[in-house]
Amino acid sequence: MIGGVSIEVIYWYTLLVCAGIAIILVVFGDVFDFDGPIDPMLIVPWLTFTSLFGFLGERLTPLHSVLILIISGVIATALVFLLNFYVLMPMKNAESTLSASEKTLEGQMAEVVTPIPVKGMGEIRLKSVTGSISRPACFYAPQDSPAESGERVLIIEVKDRVCYVTPYEEMLKM
C-alpha cells in the first residue's frame, strides 16, 4: 500500500493511462519530432510494460512488491529495446512514399500532356507499375520546335521536381 492505495491499483491505472498515451503517440507520433535525450516513443511503452508485468506479478505471484517492480522493469527494458531495434528504428529509416525518386526518372520516356514551348515549361506524364505521375518539364537543350501534346520525350535530368527533356527519336525503324 502506498498512501492507502494498493500497488495493484497503481499498476492498473498506470497501465490504462500509458496505453491511452501510446495510442495517441501512434496516431500523432509523426507530428511531433522529439530530439531530446528521452523519447516518449520509448518511455511510454516502458511504463506500459512495467505496469503490465507489475500488475500480473502482484496478482499471480507471492513475491515482494519491490522484487516484482525490479523484474517487471528488467522485462520491460528488454522488450522496449527489441521494439526500438526491430520496429521503431527501421520505420524511421524507411522511405515514406511509393512514388519514384527523382534520380530513377532520368533516362525514362514520357508523354507530353501540356505542350512544351521552345522557351518555357509544359507538362509530361510518366506511366509505371504503381500508376502515372505528372511533372513539369522544359527542354534540356535549345530546340527549333515545341513538343506537342502526345509526343514522346526522354527525361535527361531532374532538378527541383522539374524534368529536363529532349524529343525522343527511335533509332531502329523497320
Report on this structure.
The protein has 174 residues and is α+β, with helices and mostly antiparallel strands. Helices cover 44% and strands 21% of the residues. It has helices spanning 7-28, 40-60, 65-93, 102-105; strands at 109-114, 122-128, 131-139, 152-159, 162-167. It has a five-stranded mixed β-barrel. Helix 1 packs antiparallel against helix 2 (40-60) and helix 2 (40-60) runs antiparallel to helix 3 (65-93). The longest helix has 29 residues, at 65-93. It is rod-shaped, with a radius of gyration of 29 Å. The termini are far apart.
Offer a quick outline of the entry.
44% of the residues lie in helices and 21% in strands. It is α+β, with helices and mostly antiparallel strands and 174 residues long.
Would you tell me the structural class of the helices and strands? alpha+beta
Report the portion of residues in β strands. 15-25%
Percent of residues in helical segments? 40-55%
Q: Unreliable runs, pLDDT <50, ≥5 residues?
A: none
Morphology call: rod-shaped
Strand/helix succession: HHHHEEEEE
Please tell me the overall pLDDT.
82
Q: Main sheet, how many strands, which sense, barrel?
A: 5 strands, mixed, barrel
Extended strand count: 5
Distance between the termini: 90 Å
**What is the radius of gyration?**
29 Å
